[in-house]
Amino acid sequence: MTEPAHRSIRVLLADDQELIRAGFAALIDSTPDLEVVGEASDGQEAIDFLRAEPADVVLMDIRMPGLDGLAATREICTDEALADVKVIVLTTFELDDYVIGAVQAGASGFLGKTVSPEELLGAIRTVAGGDALLSPAATRAVVERMARTSGTDLDPAAFDSLTEREREMTSLAALGLSNDEIAERAYLSPLTVKTHLNRAMMKVHARDRAQLVVIAYQSGLVRPGDDLE
CA-to-CA distance for 185 and 161, rounded, in angstroms? Predict the structure, then answer.
């Protein structure tokens, strides 16, 4: 008896530039575990597509005519029917103010449009697997700035309920470490690290790792300028 084939990760491309969509589509469709299931030239088209056809990850441009990527991300991430859809924001400038708003709106991460093919494919797999991606190089400055200047519906006092291990894992994540890097540093398996972080997210009612990191800064668990010891 043969084992069933693993389902490909379904990707929706939302960008008003057809050439960019074509380039991303060619790259994504060249891999056996990813497939482009649709394209949209503005935010409303992306939302309409998702409500008609399933997708796992949206590559969302910020600046588009009509409904822009920021508004579309917020609508997707607050729609319970689309709770399983992950959004990766694409931006020309990694320190773009819109990126900050997009992560707060619920995006699972962001990428600069100069990202390498390997980084783009890896980001899609990472986000589809349930992890968040703040940037390919863990752009802490954006997270710190977002935590200092913007509000959140999350309650920083909720961190009081975290175990010492969960607080440690959260702190390391907030300092830009991946699960594999945290695992190596803490002498744990990556799966154990992910479990601790998932429990922390549940306790503080964070949608994903990005929100967990923001509230870690807002609560004072991690402070701007902190470094790994």
Answer: 24
d(CA 53, CA 13): 13
- Which of 137, 75, 85 minimizes the C-alpha distance to 108? 85
Is 13 a domain residue?
A: yes
Angle among Cα 147, 56, 205 to the nearest 5 degrees reads: 35
Structural domain that includes position 206: 144-219
- What b/e readout covers 147-162, taking b as 16+ CB neighbours within 10 angstroms? beeeeeebeeeebeeb
pTM over 0.85: no
Q: Among 99, 122, 137, where does a domain finish?
A: 137
Residue bearing tokens 């773009």: 96
Q: For residue range 111-135, list pLDDT tens digits in order.
A: 877 888 998 999 899 888 877 666 4
Q: Number of folded domains in the chain?
A: 2
User: What is the residue whose two structure tokens read 């922390």?
Assistant: 200
Burial level of 47, CB count in 10 A (0-12/13-18/19+)?
Answer: buried
Q: Does some domain include residue 91? A: yes
